[in-house]
Write a structure and sequence with these properties.
With 216 residues, the chain is α/β, with parallel strands linked by helices. The protein has one domain: Chloramphenicol Acetyltransferase (2-Layer Sandwich). The protein is globular, with a radius of gyration of 17 Å. The termini are far apart.
């Protein structure tokens, strides 16, 4: 399979998750979902000051945090556990005809450059008639945004007739203002053979660090 990032095989025998992996990898629906929220106040204010799309801002922060969380880099390919050296993102874009398009955004370290490239990608995809746009490998995060309403929970569609490689699934709801603070509903779905709730905790810690780095 073509990939954007290098990968290494994690031997399953003797792996600290061997028993957990063998247990959950037999499930027809092995994903678990956690629904929470993130305080994105510093990032929100930074994006507003710089004239950047807030949605691309929090997706960029999510990708940064996932790249720093080891278990978010794990995948299952041909019965082997793989660890990728990096991640991009693929998110849904609402096209001009009100249909969705799964769209690849290459990761760029600097937020301003990422948003500049992202604006070009979105402009092209909005006029596209394709469902899939750009690279769609396993070294991605799958994202979707529901900016019209907040939510208390979200489940993602899954194909029961094939082995899922375990790409993390991230969903966002409508931003909520509470006084001076800005909160983002976020749903995180992980393959239980590759990660547990503790790893979502580590991810959320990394996300808070990234968001906090925009404090002036």
């Amino acid at each position: 399979m073509q990939t954007r990032y290098t990968k290494e095989i994690i031997p399953i025998e003797g792996w600290e998750r061997e028993e957990t992996y063998r247990f959950f990898s037999t499930f027809t629906q092995p994903f678990f979902n956690v629904h929470t929220e993130a305080d994105i106040t510093p990032l929100y204010r930074y994006c507003k000051r710089q004239g950047l799309p807030v949605s691309l801002g929090y997706m960029h922060a999510t990708t940064q945090a996932a790249r720093n969380t080891g278990n978010f880099l794990l995948r299952i390919e041909n019965g082997q556990v793989i660890r990728y050296s990096g991640l991009d993102m693929s998110t849904t874009i609402l096209k001009d005809d009100m249909q969705i398009a799964f769209t690849h955004f290459p990761f760029i370290e600097k937020l301003e450059d990422f948003c500049g490239n992202g604006a070009q990608v979105i402009a092209e995809v909005k006029k596209s008639r394709k469902l899939f746009n750009g690279y769609q490998g396993n070294d991605l995060l799958h994202m979707t945004s529901l900016p019209w309403f907040t939510f208390k929970g979200m489940e993602h569609a899954s194909a029961a007739n094939r082995q899922d490689p375990g790409v993390p699934k991230i969903g966002y709801g409508k931003i909520e203002m509470r006084g001076e603070q800005v909160y983002l509903p976020i749903s995180i779905g992980l393959h239980h053979a590759l990660a547990d709730g503790y790893h979502i905790h580590l991810f959320l810690q990394e996300l808070a660090k990234v968001i906090g780095s925009y404090t002036t």
